[in-house]
User: Fold this.
Amino acid sequence: MTIQIRPTRLHQLRVRNFRVLRDIDLRPSPLSVILGPNGSGKSTLLDVFAFLQDAASSNLAEAWYRVGRMANLRSRQPFGPVEIDPTYSDELTAGRPVRYHLAIDEVEGAPRLAGKLLQWCYDGTTPENVLDFQHGKGTALDNETTTPRQEALSVGDPLTRGGRPRDRAEA
Assistant:
């Protein structure tokens, strides 16, 4: 019996207002090389992945504080949230694309989750919303049915734990 291991693959990465990356949309091939002059965003692109990993392993607020809050996270001059939107596949997704959209803003010095979207391609081609929250309200697909249902979660208000705001939606 042969076991086929599917490598992790990044299909698309959209980033808005993250440091020098004001609005990029990458669609890398399985082997991609990032080249550019100093200050063009090569290291910042890697920082996007580090921030996502940090937010996933702890929580959004702690990751936000570690990068130096919004002053070190958001691009200079723009308005609107920082948005990170990767589409990837790996062994856990059985090679099917998964899209995770995260939008972070700051209100009164605290991080706010402006939006969170998780899409899964059950059939391998058509994305379906598993989780869709915008400004604290949205839908989530439960395990019991295949129908999205409204969740009464408030994820837009800053919560504190140890004196720091905390993201309640750590799903």
Remarks:
- Residues 148-171 have pLDDT under 50 and may be disordered.
- The helical segments are 42-57, 60-66, 69-73.
- The beta strands are 9-18, 21-26, 82-89, 98-107, 110-120, 128-134, 137-141, 148-151, 159-161, 164-166.
